[in-house]
Specification:
Elements lengths: L1 H10 L1 H17 L20 H14 L23 H13 L17 E6 L7 H15 L3 E3 L6 E6 L2 H5 L6 E4 L4 H6 L6 H6 L6 E6 L4 H15 L25 H10 L10 H15 L18 H9 L7 H18 L4 H15 L6 H16 L4 H16 L3 H17 L3 H17 L3 H16 L22
Parallel strand pairs: 1-2, 1-3, 3-5
Antiparallel strand pairs: 4-5
Length: about 475
Amino acid sequence: MWVFSLLAYRVGAPVCVAGFVLLVIGQKDVSMRPDRRQPARGRVRAPWAPSALAAVAAVAAVLLAPAEARATPGGAAGAGAGVAASNASLAQVFTLLTHDMEWGGTRPHLVRFETPVAVGLEGPGAARFADFVDGYLDRLRRRSGIDIARRRHGQNLHVRFVGRSFERTAPGISCFVVAGDVAWKRFAADPRGHDGRRLAEARAIGHMTVFIPAAAPAHRVRSCLVEEIAQALGPANDLYGLGPTIFNDDDAHFWPTELDHLMLRVLYSDALRTGMDRATTERAARQVLDRINPAGLAAPALPLPQQRRMADWRQRLQGAFEPGLDARAAARRAAEAASIAAARTPGSAYHCHSMVALAQLAERGAAARPLEALDAADAVCRRAHGAGDIRLAWIGLMRAQLMLDLRRHGEAAELAGQVLPAFLASGQTEPAAAARKAQDAALSALGRHPEARAMGRAAGVLRSLRLAGGRAAVPATAGSAFARQR
């Protein structure tokens, strides 16, 4: 047990618990499955001793822990290795995040909390997520240097869970943030009075409110908590063309990335202050970045998102996922978006997102060749984001689920095993559970029932972890090619 105590200190209790449960699963089932197949490559069969499987499970808990969980405990802003993109381009990205709005408006003044951020949770079901929020705020505090914590009194960042009236008032929306200390009844009585224009016109942040539907699945609530709390701190924009970030409407990432923490560190540095105009903000951000991000002093520029140039692309892409739209019209709009991206920004994040949308629609029957669509999406996304990007795991999961539908069970099991480490490494337990479930179904169809039962138990463990967080297994919500609508 002392080993798991040490692991709990190094990687966090939830990850350690996952490792321990996997250890028990392995010890219980290994004697029943001497032909356990290596899922990553090929079809190698070899016996596994219980002690060997237990060791692998324990080591996997450490190696596959999310980067956030492996951060050094305590300390101030425990920055990572930095972001290897030029600080000049990062300063431009910072200005886009803080001075532009995702709906096309602009914010003339920089805004942030100028006092410690006291987070409050209220509403039906809010208490279930208190531990998750505490862990997330602790990570924000350590990695971004922001004085933020959940408190019972003096709250200025209000997270409010709303009952059934949420869907009637905001149909098709997962969650959102508004300026001020706003009760739900007040918002519901005048939604237009609290829309994005008020956020854009704000000259300072005194209070912010996040609304989340209490009836949403737990993984979607966690996703909303992570992104909306971060955006309530000041970065109000979502940038489709920005890859390694949660401030991106493709929702590929769950936890804030190194880039996200860096942006928040810049925002809350002493060199910036509420009220700065756009040009002053960019100059000050560049100075801060040169000081705190040495990795960006001699690095290539980060490709900048092109919101205005790609406005028609965004309109067509989001239109493809409108509720009630027939399959042919959806496929046509997605194809139009893909054509725009291929012509203007080939091999870009926009192009990748378009191709994934096309693959989703193909998988749902809106196109005749889903496998070809997935192959094309994989090729474009590798070019746009690199071979290690989490979007490739999402594409692989879609491919594994398609293989199940096609009754190609061996390929389904292998593909699901290949994408699982990427989801675990990024702390996305919902798609990890979906991968385990796909393995379970494929192995059962192949007659390998002991292995299938083990995969089913592992999927249940992943779904039950309260602090791990995750995304929707099968992305189906309007406006997002990966997980949920903003």
